[in-house]
Specification:
Its main location: other. Keywords: Signal, Transport. This protein is α/β, with parallel strands linked by helices. The chain folds into two domains: 171 residues, Periplasmic binding protein-like II (D-Maltodextrin-Binding Protein, domain 2, 3-Layer(aba) Sandwich); 193 residues, 3-Layer(aba) Sandwich (D-Maltodextrin-Binding Protein, domain 2). It has 19 helices and 14 strands. The relative contact order is 0.16.
Length: 429
C-alpha cells in the first residue's frame, strides 16, 4: 500500500512538473523557432498584400521567430468571434488587430498584455519606445474606459472632404474647398442650384463614425462618464445641420459604395469619407480631385474619431509574449509603417514617418491628397466605444437613429429617445 501511495505521489509530481513546463514553453516549429499567430482583417484587396510582405520580410530576417498571418473575414466583428472560440479552446494567437469600436469589449472579455508591460519585461534597452514615437492623443486612442493602455494604434484613418475642383471652379466656387460646415452647406446648395447635381455625400456604412465627427466637432460628446451623452444641444444642432442639407436636396442619403462611386463618376461634388478610400478615388476620378481637412463648426475645434485598429498582445507564455512584442515593434519601424501606409491608405500612427527619407517623404510628394489626413492627426479622438457588452446593440441604435433623422424625423426627439435606450442598455435594464 505504501509503495502504491509513493508511486501515485511520484506520478502526480511528474505530471505537475510536465504541466508547469508546458505552460512556460512556447510552441516551436521544426527549426526550433518560436511560432506565433498574427490575426488580421486585411483581405488581399484591402492591405492583405502588405501584411504578407511585412510578415515574409520579418520571417526571413530573424532566426528565432516564425509569424503566421491569419486572415479573419467579416472584419473586426468576425475577428472577435474567432478570438472567442480560440480563447475557449486555450489557443489564443500572439498578436491581434482590434477595431476601435471593440476596444472596451476586447479588454473586458480577453486576456492581453499591455505594451508597456511587454517592454518593461522584454525590451529593457528601449523603455521609452511609446513615449518617444507616438503623440499622446494617438496613444490615448488605445486606452479603455478605465484608462488602461490596451494596445498601440496601428491602422489610422480619419474623415476628409474629397472635392471635385473642376465642378467647384465651373460654379464660381473656390477650388480650395470649404473650411466650415456652414460653408459646406453653402457650396453644396450652389452646386445643386447651378448644375442639378448633388453637392455633398457623407459616408453611411454600418457604423456611426462620420456622424460622430460632426457631433463632436460641434462641442458635444458621444460618451461622458460611461453614459451616452450625444443628445445635447450641440449634438442636436450638428445632426439638424446634416438633416437640413438632405432635406433641401444639396446632400444625398444613400449607401457608402453608391455615394463614393457617384462622387467618382462626377455626379456629387464633395464626398466626406475616410482617407482610406484615397487610392480608389484618385485612380477612378476623371476630374481634378483633391482633399481638404475635415470641416469645422465656426469657433470650435475639429474633433475626428480614429478609424482602423490597434494591435494587442494576446500571447500567454513568456517566450511567445517576447516574440509577439519583437514582431509588433518591427511593424512600427519607419520603413514598415511606410509599407503599411502605401498598401492600405491608412495614415501612420508613429509621429516621424511622414517626413523621413526612408518613410513617406517621397510618397507624400506624389500623393498630396494624403496630407490633410496626416496634418489633422492632432485633432483625432477615440471612436465611441460603449462600455460592457452593449456595444453592438448600441451601435445599431445609432444607425437606426441616423436613418430616422435623414428620413425626416424630429431630430431632438429621435436623439433623446435613442440616448435613453442606450443608457438603459448600459445600466442592464
Amino acid at each position: 500500500m505504501k509503495k502504491l501511495i509513493k508511486s501515485l505521489i511520484f506520478l502526480i509530481i511528474v505530471a505537475t512538473i510536465f504541466t508547469a513546463c508546458s505552460k512556460k514553453e512556447a510552441k516551436t516549429n521544426e527549426d526550433g523557432k518560436i511560432k506565433i499567430n498574427y490575426y488580421h482583417v486585411n483581405a488581399e484587396t484591402q492591405g492583405g498584400i502588405a501584411v504578407a510582405d511585412l510578415v515574409d520580410n520579418f520571417n526571413k530576417n530573424n532566426d528565432h521567430i516564425e509569424v503566421v498571418a491569419t486572415y479573419n473575414p467579416d472584419m473586426y466583428k468576425g475577428l472577435m468571434q474567432n478570438l472567442q472560440a480560440k480563447q475557449a479552446a486555450g489557443e489564443l494567437p500572439g498578436l491581434v488587430q482590434v477595431g476601435w469600436a471593440f476596444l472596451d469589449y476586447f479588454s473586458n472579455n480577453f486576456d492581453y498584455v499591455s505594451p508597456q508591460d511587454a517592454i518593461d519585461k522584454f525590451d529593457k534597452d528601449d523603455p521609452n519606445f511609446l513615449k518617444d514615437n507616438f503623440l499622446e492623443n494617438i496613444l490615448d486612442l488605445a486606452k479603455n474606459s478605465d484608462g488602461d493602455q490596451v494596445g498601440i494604434p496601428y491602422s489610422l484613418s480619419t474623415p476628409v472632404l474629397y472635392i471635385n475642383k473642376d465642378l467647384l471652379k465651373n460654379c464660381g466656387l473656390s477650388e480650395e474647398g470649404p473650411k466650415t460646415w456652414k460653408e459646406v452647406h453653402e457650396f453644396a446648395k450652389t452646386i445643386k442650384d447651378k448644375t442639378g447635381k448633388y453637392g455633398l455625400y457623407i459616408q453611411e456604412p454600418q457604423d456611426f463614425w462620420a456622424q460622430q465627427a460632426l457631433i463632436e466637432s460641434n462641442g458635444a460628446k458621444m460618451i461622458t462618464d460611461n453614459k451616452a451623452s450625444f443628445a445635447s444641444q450641440e449634438g442636436i444642432e450638428a445632426m439638424k445641420a446634416y438633416q437640413d442639407m438632405v432635406n433641401d436636396g444639396s446632400a444625398i442619403h444613400i449607401s457608402w459604395d453608391e455615394g463614393v462611386q457617384s462622387f467618382v463618376d462626377g455626379n456629387i461634388c464633395m464626398c466626406y469619407t475616410t482617407i482610406a478610400r484615397r487610392e480608389q478615388i484618385q485612380k477612378g476620378a476623371k476630374f481634378d480631385v483633391g482633399t481638404v481637412k475635415s470641416p469645422t463648426f465656426e469657433g470650435k475645434d475639429r474633433k475626428i474619431p480614429a478609424g482602423g485598429c490597434f494591435l494587442a498582445i494576446t500571447a500567454t507564455k513568456d517566450d511567445e509574449i517576447a516574440a509577439a512584442w519583437e514582431f509588433e515593434k518591427y511593424l512600427y519601424g519607419i520603413e514598415q509603417m511606410a509599407t503599411w501606409t502605401k498598401g492600405t491608405g491608412y495614415t501612420p500612427p508613429r509621429k516621424d514617418v511622414a517626413d523621413a527619407e526612408n518613410g513617406l517623404k517621397s510618397f507624400l510628394q506624389e500623393n498630396q491628397m494624403m496630407r490633410p489626413a496626416i496634418e489633422q492627426s492632432e485633432d483625432v479622438v477615440s471612436w465611441a466605444s460603449f462600455p460592457g457588452n452593449a456595444g453592438l446593440e448600441a451601435e445599431q441604435l445609432l444607425l437606426d437613429m441616423r436613418d430616422e433623422i435623414l428620413s425626416g424625423a424630429d431630430v431632438k426627439n429621435s436623439m433623446e429617445t435613442t440616448q435613453e435606450k442606450i443608457n438603459s442598455l448600459l445600466a442592464g435594464k
